[in-house]
Amino acid sequence: MRSHNLRLLGLSQVYPFNRWNSRIEAELCALISEAVEAGAETISLIPCNDGTRTGEAERKADLRFALERCLPVLEDAKMVALVEPLGFLRASIRLKSETIDAIEDVQGGGFFKLVHDTFHHCLTDERSLYPVQTGIVHISGVSDVNVPLDQLEDKHRVAVDAADRLGNLSQIAALHEAGYAGVFSFECFAPEVPSHSDPASVIKDSIDFISSQTEQLAA
After folding, report:
1. Cα distances (angstroms) measured from residue 151 to each of 61, 94, 147, 174
2. Fewer CB atoms near the end CB (10 Å): N or C, the chain?
3. How confident is the model at residue 3 (pLDDT cuts 50, 70, 90)?
4. Which domain holds residue 174?
5. Are 166 and 139 in contact (CB under 8 A)?
6. How far is 110 from 104, CA to CA, in rounded Å?
7. What is the CA radius of gyration of the chain?
């Protein structure tokens, strides 16, 4: 990859990593092995998203327990794991603040980073940004005005344009202002994006729109 001036930013995914058991441990080890062999920089850890064990005490305990078990495996492989809080009301890890607290509790700051997903950030209405602890930013837009925010799903996530409801431009600008200098990655799960006759043009148009608007905001 690097010989062609390409970076493999990460491999996905271990799910649901915070329901730790022998199967999850085996999946973690297998994914790390694949990542090391491929030269990937990170792996992804996705929390349980089925509405179970979402009470404060149990979700925090589950998260810390899983991070404690993941940490020595990551240390041995010198691999970074990206933990992605999800904004859905049914998700077992929603807040970046709780995730940061748990990472600090297990002294895992060198091996765990956050995913800042503009979609999920909007759904949680969490205001704080953690640029230093963020390993990647996922961006996608929502233009459908007929669906309330708390009912949005991945199928509504399109490329960012002028009709975006998620505040992508303000989030990106705020992250830059706070010192984030890392990678941005599109996560447009709506089926009309990959099925478009020219999906590359959709992404290029979105990149051009975001670039022009953020330059204006910074001016």
Report:
1. 27, 15, 6, 25
2. C
3. low
4. 2-218
5. no
6. 10
7. 18
174-183: Cβ within 8 A, 24+ apart = 174/129, 175/116, 175/129, 175/131, 175/134, 175/137, 176/214, 176/218, 178/129, 178/131, 179/131, 179/132, 180/116, 180/129, 180/131, 180/134, 180/137, 182/134, 182/135, 182/136, 182/137, 183/9, 183/136, 183/137
Residue 156 in tokens: 């509504």
pTM: 0.95
pLDDT, tens digit, 9 for 90 and up, residues 176-209: 999 999 999 999 999 999 999 999 999 999 999 9
The helix, strand and coil proportions of the chain, stated in percent and rounded to the nearest 5, come to 45, 15, 45
195 burial type by CB count under 10 A (0-12 exposed, 13-18 middle, 19+ buried): exposed
What is the total count of domains within the chain? 1
Question: In whole angstroms, what is the distance from residue 47 CA to residue 127 CA?
Answer: 21
pLDDT-derived band at 75, boundaries 50, 70, 90: very high
Q: Which residue do the tokens 């998700």 mark?
A: 91
- Segment (H or E) for 83: strand 80-83
pLDDT digits (tens, 9 = 90+) for 98-155: 999 999 999 999 999 999 999 999 999 999 999 999 999 999 999 999 999 999 999 9
Residue type, position 136, single letter? I
Give CA angle at 42 (191, 22), nearest 5°: 90
Q: What is the pLDDT of residue 215?
A: 76
Q: Report the pLDDT value the prediction gives residue 2, as an integer from 0 to 100.
A: 62
CATH number at residue 154: 3.20.20.150
